[in-house]
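ok so I'm stuck.
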Amino acid sequence: MALTEAREQHKAPAAEGKRPSGKRRSAAVLVLLWCVLHLGGLFSPGLLDDVDSIYIEAAREMLHRHDYVTPYVDGIRFFDKPPLMYWLAAAGMKLFGEYDWAARLLLSVCVLGLFLAVYALGTRLFSERGGFYAALVLATSLGPYLFTRFYIPDILNALWMTLGIHFFLLALDRAQGGRPARLPLWGFAAAMALNLLTKGLIGIVFPAAFAVLYAALTGQLRRLARLPLLSAVVLFLLIALPWHVLAALRNPAIAMPPGMGLPARAGWFWFYVINEHFLRFRGLRIPHDYGQVPLLLFWAMFFLWLTPWFVLLPAAGARYLRMWRNRHAETNHACRAALAVVLWSGLVLGFFSLSSRQEYYSLPALPALALMAGDVLARAEGTDVDLRQKVHHLFTWLLLPTSTAIAAVCAVLAAMSLTAPAGTDISEVLTSNPDQYNLALGHLHDLTASAMSFFRAPLLGMTAAMLGVGPVAWMLRRRHAGETSERMANAVMAVSMCGALLCVHTGLSRFYPIIGSKGLATRLAAAVRPEDAVLLDGELTSGSTLLFYTRHPLLLVNGRVNGPWFGSLWPDAPPVFDDEAALHRAWQSRQHVYLLTYNRARIADLERVAPVHLFAAAGGKLLLSNQ
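replied:
not stuck anymore, here's the structure
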């Protein structure tokens, strides 16, 4: 086996050099998948309430303030995240206008960059076919698609991690061969700096820990020390340091009110560095406005986000274990490739097992899992008959029954769903579980059997897609044993998963009135005047899409919590926070006042002081007016 792998490594560069069209064809397929799944999904649904619209509104206010250092939301300092996500959205809106799709565009382009980066790294670690399958797995898996439906930095974190690891491995290889390693090491430094500006300190913790541990485990610590580290550190600081210095200088520590658990003086440094990183790691962040996924559930999701391709991971694990036991007979390259992907995924899983965690925090490790799965697919398609047999067993006993069961459940739900009466709002057939909404997928707890009529078409589409992923692909593998049948089965799975993911997108669009307010906001934008008041009943995350789509400041009733809370302590913060008494005074004034609320009891409350008019309603939200 070692001899065969060594021969394949020597032959691969020459073969790939003779067939550049193969690489172009692979890249073209990945671009096509991106166009179908991501580019086409830029325009719907609208922005979601909560972080999706808050981050993009921060980018829009950057454009208007011409301040790209301190983010503001509703005129209030917002220190929660580093700036690269805001800069990307601001650049998109600067180029194409202040539209939601323009704000999402550059992040979507980065998703394409991630697919191509995984393809390039997989080609380096395994083979061209292994790299292509790894990128295909990532592009058609549930997690990477689901968590690019709203604007969060974790998929970008995965891109910088992939590029950084590739550059680092290239630098070590060049140093081993006595060639200059400066350029790839600079690439590693730049990727770390961009990661820091995307996700904070874990942007350097993961790649730096990988570099040190990988070098130690492969006996290359001395070679690591001989790399041109000084110039790489200088480049890293040139990219990462300016924003941090300017943010600290422009937002120095000020006196904090007593009795709130805050230090006597605090500014950007305390909130962003101490509170957002070290206290969040320990679960002590102030305020505690996020959920905590149980550890076992986080571990399960770590693999399930690679659905349906996670079924290949046991075969990859068994192969790597066998390689470890026979490591003296394996090629150096094969052992190091296996070590790289295992170490990469293990670092992310281990870190968030000790820290606070959300469902999507494992995204930076998914490229490593995709590389494992891609390598297995490529080898099973080739001459490794034993591995092919293991893959067939996994598909038969794990994927086939699972996908068939999902298809059956979706078909039954679609068949049993009763058509809702015309004009029924989706909120009328859902439950409410606000205690779950701090989790990214908390609204899934609201679904009921009665709500399935809104999702009949995507349920039927999911039924067909799961039959393709399971029974159809299984029959192709079972009837024919060879490279062609394996490729056909893999292609059927990938195409079927494209259909499944498009059904997920359709379902999200139909669920949108619950988690977004674009419809209400656009109606309000057509009527509201600059002198009118727009109020939100509760915290900013309950209706933050109003800010982006109306371009009108929001006043928050009992909403001085969570996101804007810390920024509101600055003396120059606008007076956007109202209480019950202020709401009642405004409602009976001559000013035209609009109020977005989830609380129907608010109508009776306001009718005691002045007339209440229902301006619009959707998704359980009421837009009330006093005139």
